[in-house]
Design a protein that fits this description.
This protein has 154 residues and is α+β, with helices and mostly antiparallel strands. The protein is built from four helices and five strands, in the order ββββαβααα. It has a five-stranded mixed beta sheet. 14% of the residues are buried.
């Protein structure tokens, strides 16, 4: 039988209260448990000594028996000096997911294309105006500028 030291939720809606219990790992969260070894009230201030109440002797016994604490309970056990909790590191924690990276890359390429089209339209409007008469330039360049704008939007 695999035992776990975990939190069992009690209290009313929006007013949580947890019991620290030793239970079979297959039992439901708020269901049958073997022994209650403490309580946790997250509504109290972090400095309040009644926020976490733990029977350290029973916790040491169950840890010696092989009971696995959950992450939150492991923090409580570490604070009480029952079981040392190893440092955990997640180097990819702040890194965006693959879809977000793809969206950002796509957006950057669209912006770059729009800037290139704007520069090309600007150069086309400025350079031929000096060489050719204004009437011919506006008639030829207007459809090309509209087409480049439509490509940038679509």
């Amino acid at each position: 039988m695999a035992t776990a030291i975990r939190l069992s939720r009690g209290g009313s809606k929006k007013r949580p209260y947890y019991r620290i219990v030793v239970a079979d790992s297959r039992a439901p969260r708020d269901g049958k448990f073997i022994e209650r070894i403490g309580s946790y009230n997250p509504l109290l201030a972090k400095t309040d000594e009644k926020r976490v109440v733990l029977d350290t002797e029973r916790a040491k016994y169950w840890v010696a028996q092989g009971a696995q604490p959950t992450d939150r309970v492991a923090r409580f056990l570490d604070a009480a000096g029952v079981k040392e909790r190893g440092a955990r590191s997640n180097p990819n924690k702040g890194e965006p997911g693959q879809k977000a990276k793809d969206r950002a890359e796509e957006k950057a390429s669209k912006i770059a294309e729009a800037e290139e089209a704007a520069k090309a339209a600007e150069e086309a409007a400025n350079a031929p105006a000096e060489e050719a008469p204004a009437e011919e330039v506006t008639a030829e360049e207007a459809p090309a500028a509209e087409a480049s704008e439509e490509q940038a939007e679509g």
